[in-house]
Amino acid sequence: MSRSAMTTTIRRRLASEIGRIDKQAPFRVALSYPSPYRAGMSSLGFLQIYKMIQAEPGMACERAFLPDDEGQGAEGAPVTYEGLRPLSDFPVIALSVAYELELAGVARLLELAGLPALREERDGRHPFVLAGGPLTFSNPLPLAVFADAILMGEADTLAVEVLRLLRDAPSREAALDELARVPHVFVPARHGAEMPPVAQCDSALLPAWSPIRAEETELSNMFLIEAERGCSRGCTYCVMRRSTNGGMRIVPKERLLELIPEDARRVGLVGAAVSDHPKIVEVVRTLAERGCEVGLSSLRPDRLTDEFVGALRLAGYKTLTTAMDGTSERVRETLERRARPRHLQRAAELARQHGMNRLKLYLMVGVPGETDEDVDECVSFVAELSRVVPVALGIAPFCPKRNTPLHGARFAGIDVVNKRLDRLRRGLRGRADVRATSARWAWVEAVLAAGGEAEGRAVLQAVHAGGSFRDYERAFEKIKRPEPPRRQSLPLLAAG
Ligand code: B12
Ligand code: SF4
């Protein structure tokens, strides 16, 4: 995209935003997202940090995103939305990173901005690169090659505390020394690979809600608000399980309803396990009666009742989306899921009774211990459900993550995942729509999820080589340590 086309796009997007906090202040930060605007402006965490910075006296931020057509010959360096300024003009670039495959976006964004992507190649003449985001709840070690400091976990107030410290520090080295003493701040140049634990913010600060409603985003014009934070369940593969951050903190119904603007026509209720909110049905029904379309970030099948699904239908749901998690009952038990076949059968019946077009089920393949028999059980079970209501499966290959009991388990192997997917597709042909994310990229995600600085450097090499899967394979091959297998024969290792 040429510079002038980029400027036109930015102006159009700014004109369509509702709620932006325009502010001038002496200390300005480039709050950046390593994916395009559509994704970044759907991130409540990113918008929460935006809001906190804009509320701080003497401080303001300007937003920047990876250009939309980056990777397809983008010419222009990214500029901030508010000031059309290059990122290199700012003393601090603050980055929100959601998950492992966004590390490439971090490297690209910095290099497109004309900055060395590697932390060790930057000095006091360059902006300080501060990072945070959902990735820090799991394994941000590969990010440590790019970022000068990483805020682990919930940064609602921590981000501004750290920015104050950066503003006031006499030098970059002094800032690094001071930051290394702040709890939950990971300073790779001082801590090596020793990451501090994740922060938990004061519950009085909840909920996060998005100050800006934007049109050209994944969640177009949706007002996002947290109904709860964290999760009290203990699914063994999940980064947000109760052990990560002390369980679920619930936002009272009254507080939620008072914060949602009367003119919001679309509302997104966000949280790791939103349907566990004790008053969720009342919240959804009240919003639907106000004329709002409502979306929930997750629905647990064991929480679905006639009343709940009725409220969701009233709030505009046409597809009932919930999680099946594993291919069979045995696999689900190893994952410690509370969802039972009877819950999924009831979900199918409720979807039909309430006139939904279909039931969408998320699940993983390649879970430790899974065999072809489990896949066959999935086929017959889903075929049964499809007699009740049309079914669509959204499948992701299992990736072991740090901070979960399945950390250390093995990635199934690209071939195994693909074979299982073929078996599922064949078995369900004509009976269910089966969509899956790529096994190859899941392998890349698994390598990064278990990786350290060497894997971070490999991301940069892969990006330089063009960023294809083959480029990642080659870059990882050079690392002298055992990596999750690309090819593996059955059976998989049992979960640890
Ligand atoms: C809503 C949601 C989505 C939405 C919105 C995406 C988004 N970017 O927020 C959609 C549906 C699009 C989505 C997509 C995906 N998601 Co999602 N998503 C969530 C969910 C349920 C809530 C996120 C949220 O808004 N939380 C509330 C806010 C306030 O918290 P937060 O984002 O963590 O922000 C805090 C900190 O991270 C930090 N922070 C955030 N930004 C910044 C920036 C700076 C500078 C600093 C210092 C700090 C900081 O401070 C914030 C305030 O405390 C979380 C689970 C959870 N966290 O509860 C999963 C979660 C983040 N998603 C996850 C995944 C895997 C994905 C997908 C990859 C799924 C897929 N296979 O496609 C994609 C990735 C797309 C993307 N680029 O983000 C994982 C990430 C785990 C990991 N790293 O291993 C999570 C944790 C779910 C899980 N249980 O595993 N997701
Ligand atoms: S998968 Fe969902 S219910 Fe299970 S621990 Fe994670 S957030 Fe909670």
Automatic annotation (TrEMBL):
The lineage of its organism: Bacteria, Pseudomonadati, Myxococcota, Polyangia, Polyangiales. InterPro entries: Elp3/MiaA/NifB-like_rSAM, Radical_SAM_N2, rSAM, rSAM_horseshoe, rSAM_sf. This is Radical SAM protein. Coiled coil: none annotated. It comes from Sorangium cellulosum (Polyangium cellulosum). Residues 216-435 form the Radical SAM core domain. GO terms for molecular function: catalytic activity; iron-sulfur cluster binding. It holds the Pfam family Radical_SAM_N2.
